[in-house]
Specification:
Layout: H1 3-18, E1 23-27, H2 30-42, E2 45-51, E3 108-113, E4 115-116, E5 119-120, E6 124-127, E7 136-137, H3 139-147, E8 162-168, E9 171-174, H4 175-181, E10 185-192
Antiparallel strand pairs: 1-3, 2-3, 4-5, 6-10, 7-10, 8-9, 8-10
Helix pairs in contact: 3-4
C-alpha cells in the first residue's frame, strides 16, 4: 500500500472539488477503489466507476454501488457497441475496446463529485498517516477518536460531517464502524464536509 499515492489522491480530490469539477479520475488500485466506495457510502462522492483513460458516458455512471462487492469486473464500464456506418470501402470497423481489454496500467477510477448549495460536499481531505510516520491504533484509541477525544497527537472527530478512514484486516472502514466492530488498524485519511 502506497501512502504517497493516497496523498496525491487526497490533494487531487480536494483541488477538483474546489475547482467545481463534476467528474475526475484517479489511478485504479484496490485500496483506492475500496476507499472511494466508502466515501460514496458516506455521501462524499456521487459515483465511482472503473474505466479507461477517456471519461465514461454519463449513462454508465451508476450512483448506487455495493461496497461489499469485491469483484472489480462488476464496476467496469460497459461501453455501448457503435452502430456500423456505411462507408465507401465496406471495410469492417475495428471492434471497440472493452474495459476488460484495457491494460491494467491504463485503468482509471472515475469519481463523480457532489455539491450542496454551490459548495463542495468533500471540502477537505488529508492524510493522517504519513509515508514516514504510519499511525496504528487499537480499538480503544479508535473508540476515543470516534467519541471526539484526542488520542496521542491525532485529533478526535468533532466537526459535523467529519470522517476518518482506517485500514484494518477486514478492509477499509470508517472510524465509527471500527469502534462498533471493536477492531484497530492504521489511520489513513480524514475527510471534512461542508
Amino acid at each position: 500500500m502506497s501512502l504517497v499515492n493516497l496523498a496525491h489522491v487526497c490533494s487531487h480530490l480536494q483541488n477538483a472539488s474546489k475547482a467545481r469539477l463534476g467528474l475526475t479520475s484517479i489511478p485504479c488500485t484496490k485500496m483506492l477503489h475500496t476507499l472511494m466506495l466508502q466515501l460514496q457510502r458516506s455521501g462524499y462522492v456521487s459515483s465511482v466507476t472503473i474505466g479507461g483513460p477517456t471519461p465514461p458516458p454519463p449513462s454508465s455512471l451508476n450512483p448506487i454501488l455495493d461496497p461489499s462487492d469485491d469483484s472489480v469486473s462488476s464496476h467496469i464500464v460497459q461501453r455501448p457497441q457503435p452502430q456500423p456506418t456505411q462507408s465507401s470501402e465496406d471495410a469492417p470497423a475495428p471492434a471497440p475496446q472493452t474495459p476488460e481489454q484495457i491494460p491494467v496500467a491504463k485503468r482509471r477510477l472515475w469519481v463523480g463529485l457532489k455539491y450542496w448549495n454551490s459548495e463542495p460536499v468533500l471540502y477537505k481531505m488529508g492524510l493522517v498517516s504519513k509515508p514516514t510516520r504510519r499511525v496504528w491504533m487499537g480499538f480503544r484509541d479508535i473508540d476515543r477518536l470516534a467519541k471526539g477525544d484526542h488520542s496521542g497527537y491525532v485529533r478526535g472527530l468533532r466537526g459535523v460531517g467529519e470522517s476518518m478512514y482506517v485500514t484494518t484486516d477486514q478492509g477499509i472502514m470508517e472510524v465509527r464502524e471500527c469502534s462498533e466492530k471493536r477492531t484497530g488498524g492504521m489511520l489513513l485519511c480524514r475527510v471534512n464536509g461542508v
